[in-house]
């Protein structure tokens, strides 16, 4: 899709667009152009363009977590319908960003139940009003605050809110029997993250949220990440969650140390790596430093 069409046809924020650097975007377009595979117990992933999607098919119906963009969501719906003629029971959003919710509109008329954290719905509404894209939204009609749970066939699906991180409305979705968790954008696997201060993000609390993840889940849990520097590594383990927690702690330490030393934001932005971090890549290091500085400097 040409850049002008991409910009016209999606409701993604300008900040979210920055997530797609040339190298990772090219990787997503490489052969194969998308991922569609089962991970465990009829739960799988779909990744084409945008935030990774998780899906489940069982004897009662279909559940989808996140929706990428309209074209990609339509592609996924077609693939799932080839697998099953059962109804789509739920669409669940991990948070509001356009690369996770723009595709919601493709599910209109396909699924009637859409869920998200209450702050995610508020953020999605605010962004849509600001961008005048309300007609392109399919908003969640079920919201939750701390936890929320449903049963679809033999699978129990539970959502957890661990507090502010990437935004103030990030939920993790756990397929309990399969023991698969969609982390949303609370984990950018080895890729410099976007920290959305405009939507209540917190560099300081993000690693605290990930500590809750470490306590809630276990070494056998399969994690589906919102993004990864290597598009083939959007699925991982607790070790990757720990690595993300370490990155966020080191980012905070770098900015706090700089502020205490009297450094300006521009001086901190000269960094090409975060001290103590060797395996994070991409072109977004300045985004995280800027967000941390704005939060921690007050």
- Kindly estimate the percentage of residues that lie in beta strands according to DSSP: 15-25%
Q: What coarse outline follows from CA principal-axis ratios?
A: globular
Unreliably modeled segments: 1-31
Helix content: 25-40%
Number of helices: 10
Order of helices and strands: HHHEEEEHEHEHEEEEEHEEHHH
Largest sheet descriptor: 7 strands, mixed
**How would you classify the helix and strand content by structural class?**
alpha/beta
| Computed CA radius of gyration, to the nearest angstrom | 18 Å
Can you give the mean pLDDT?
91
What's the count of strands? 13
What's the N-to-C terminus distance? 40 Å
Give, in spatial order, the strands making up the sheet with the most strands. Answer: 1-2-3-4-5-6-7
Outline of the structure:
It contains ten helices and 13 strands.
Account of the protein in words:
The chain is globular. With 298 residues, the chain is α/β, with parallel strands linked by helices. The chain is built from ten helices and 13 strands. The strands form two sheets. It has a seven-stranded mixed sheet with strand order 1-2-3-4-5-6-7. Helix 8 packs across helix 10.
């Amino acid at each position: 899709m040409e850049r002008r069409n991409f910009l016209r046809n999606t409701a993604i924020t300008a900040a979210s667009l920055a997530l797609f650097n040339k190298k990772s975007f090219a990787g997503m377009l490489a052969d194969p152009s998308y991922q569609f595979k089962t991970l465990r117990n009829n739960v799988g992933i779909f990744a084409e363009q945008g935030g990774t999607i998780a899906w489940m098919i069982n004897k009662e119906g279909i559940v989808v977590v996140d929706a990428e963009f309209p074209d990609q969501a339509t592609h996924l719906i077609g693939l799932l319908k080839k697998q099953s003629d059962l109804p789509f029971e739920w669409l669940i959003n991990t948070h509001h960003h356009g690369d996770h919710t723009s595709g919601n509109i493709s599910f209109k008329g396909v699924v009637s139940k859409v869920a998200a954290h209450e702050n995610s719905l508020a953020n999605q509404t605010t962004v849509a009003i600001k961008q005048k894209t309300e007609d392109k939204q399919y908003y969640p009609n079920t919201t939750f605050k701390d936890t929320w749970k449903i049963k679809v066939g033999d699978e129990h699906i539970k959502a957890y809110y661990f507090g502010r991180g990437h935004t103030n409305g990030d939920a993790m979705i756990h397929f309990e029997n399969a023991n698969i968790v969609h982390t949303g954008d609370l984990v950018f696997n080895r890729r410099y993250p976007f920290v959305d201060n405009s939507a209540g993000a917190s560099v300081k609390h993000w690693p605290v949220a990930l500590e809750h993840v470490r306590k809630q889940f276990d070494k056998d849990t399969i994690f589906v990440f919102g993004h990864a520097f290597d598009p083939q590594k959007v699925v991982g383990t607790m070790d990757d969650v720990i690595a993300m927690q370490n990155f966020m702690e080191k980012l905070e330490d770098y900015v706090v140390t700089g502020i205490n030393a009297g450094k300006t934001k521009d001086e901190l932005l000269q960094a090409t790596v975060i001290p103590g971090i060797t395996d994070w890549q991409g072109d977004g290091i300045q985004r995280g430093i800027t967000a941390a500085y704005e939060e921690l400097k007050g």
